[in-house]
Amino acid sequence: MIIIAGATGYIGKYLSVELKNKGRDVLALGRNPQSAAFLRSQGVPFLEFDLLNDADYDKLPTKNIEAIVNLAVCLPEHEAPLEAFFNVNMTGNYKLLEFARKNGIKRFIMASSHKVYWDISRKEPITENDLPCFIGPHSPYIISKLAAENFLQWYSKDYGMDCIVLRLTGVHGYGALMGYLENDGSYTRTAIEVFIGRAVNGEPIEVWGDTSIKRDHVYIKDVLGAIEAAIDAPAGTKGIYNVASGVAHSQLEDAEAVAKAFATDKGVSKIVLRPDKPSLRRGYVYSIEKIKKNMGWTPKYADLNVLFADYRKEWEKHLYKSHHFIKPEDRPVSFG
Fold first, then answer.
1. Which single residue of 15, 125, 161, 182 could bond 287 by disulfide (Cβ 3.0 to 4.6 Å)?
2. Could you tell me the residue range of the domain that residue 83 belongs to?
3. CATH of the domain at 234
4. Distance (Å, rounded) from C-alpha 42 to C-alpha 122?
5. 257 located within any domain
């Protein structure tokens, strides 16, 4: 069995259904009732579970557990008090690690973030050997995830567990919460969400700022492949791994691919460059050689046209829609 904590989140829903459809024995854990109902409708076994509630651990199976995947997280894109980041991302992760250790579960996989590299700016790929270097308002989140990463490395060394940290770059895909969500449902959209909304309506897409700045993003289905590769990696596989496409693209390239993939009978959106408008501060690209070598994983959606063509298919299905409350006037078209 594979236990997936945080299964009611964006990646967790996709992963739970994907693994179940492949015939794997899955137990999904989470708290969101709407996402729980969705998972049950897809035939995924689900258990209501709070990482911080010690009593909930007594409900978990302890035999024949192949791996635990921890996707539970307090994100910086959600309005939250500082202590929430450390309660969920650090303490909750520690409690789940302890459950694994006490019950002889060797393989433990945790999703982390490329934001640990947030203040590194260079054209060459960033590798796992680069020391964490960050800046800005997301720092409390980053510090909490680094603490969680350190717990995994400790348990690998002292208890012989195969703990794997997957540092995910920005994840694209239908249903992703990419902007900033406030507690009252106000939502600030990202450029990609704006691009999709305008492409669907055949409206001009403005690309702001310096189009020479490029960033490395990854598609949701490639993330699922990376997690499954981590589950199936040979015994003794452990450590920190970047999960990205290994290719950087500009917002101009994003806009062109979105305009093509999301065009309707209203026509293909015209691209308008606005270098006078503020936009990206820095670019980045990540090395994925380590995960390729140790786990045999390679992204299948690094080409933007392939990525957004599949994104549109998922958007048209509306299967993995977001269950977050967002004010109607702020809700992106890309959410369906």
1. 125
2. 2-174+217-245+283-301
3. 3.40.50.720
4. 43
5. no
* Tokens 């065009």 -> residue: 263
If you write DSSP's letter for every residue of 148-211 in order, what string do you get?
HHHHHHHHHHHH--EEEEEEE-PEESTT---SEE-TTS-EEPPHHHHHHHHHHTT--EEEES-T
45 found inside a domain: yes
pLDDT in tens, the chain (336 residues): 999 999 999 999 999 999 999 999 999 999 999 999 999 999 999 999 999 999 999 999 999 999 999 999 998 877 788 899 999 999 999 999 999 999 999 999 999 999 999 888 888 999 999 999 888 888 999 999 999 999 999 999 999 999 999 999 999 999 998 888 888 999 999 999 999 999 999 999 999 999 999 999 999 999 999 999 999 999 999 999 999 999 999 999 999 999 999 999 999 999 999 999 999 989 999 999 999 999 999 999 999 999 999 999 999 999 998 888 899 999 998 886
Residue 277 lies in a domain: no
- Number of domains observed in the structure of the chain: 1
Tokens encoding 241: 């791994």
Amino acid 196 reads: I
Give the separation between CA 288 and CA 290, rounded to whole angstroms: 6
Please provide residue 140's backbone torsions phi and psi, each rounded to the nearest 5 degrees: -60, -40
Residue 291: phi, psi to the nearest 5?
-70, -30
